[in-house]
Amino acid sequence: MFSRRIVGFAAAKRMKTDLVATAFKRALATRTSLDGLIHHSVRGSQYCSDTYQRLLSRHKITPSMSGKGNCFDNSMVEPQFTTTC
User: Fold this and answer.
1) Phi, then psi, of 33 in degrees rounded to 5
2) Which of 9, 24, 64, 66 is the most buried (most CB within 10 A)?
3) What does the alpha-carbon distance between residue 39 and residue 9 come to, in Å, rounded to a whole number?
4) pLDDT per residue over 21-67, tens digit each?
């Protein structure tokens, strides 16, 4: 939300831990400072995985996840995924 731009992304046929880890590592490569970074995500198994949580911890990043059943938690990022027909 700070820069209002996507800083790391990856695409694949399935949403697995290695996919979100790749996107996260690409984001890390584009940022110079991670001080005080909070990483917000949905409660998907790939974000909850030990592998991904260790990745966040290794970079001293605070994890944050959507509240259960709270559809408004991700309202800031949802417009990034809309398309016009």
Assistant:
1) -130, 135
2) 24
3) 14
4) 999 899 888 877 777 888 878 788 898 899 999 999 998 989 888 77
| 68/57 Cα distance (integer angstroms) | 23
Output DSSP code: residue 49: S
Distance of CA 83 to the CA centre of its chain: 20
Q: How far apart are CA 26 and CA 67, in angstroms?
A: 26
pLDDT value of position 84: 46
Of the candidates 16, 24, 38, the one whose C-alpha atom is nearest the C-alpha of residue 7 is 24
Name the nearest CA neighbour of 3 among 32, 44, 46: 32
Name the nearest CA neighbour of 46 among 32, 65, 61, 30.
65
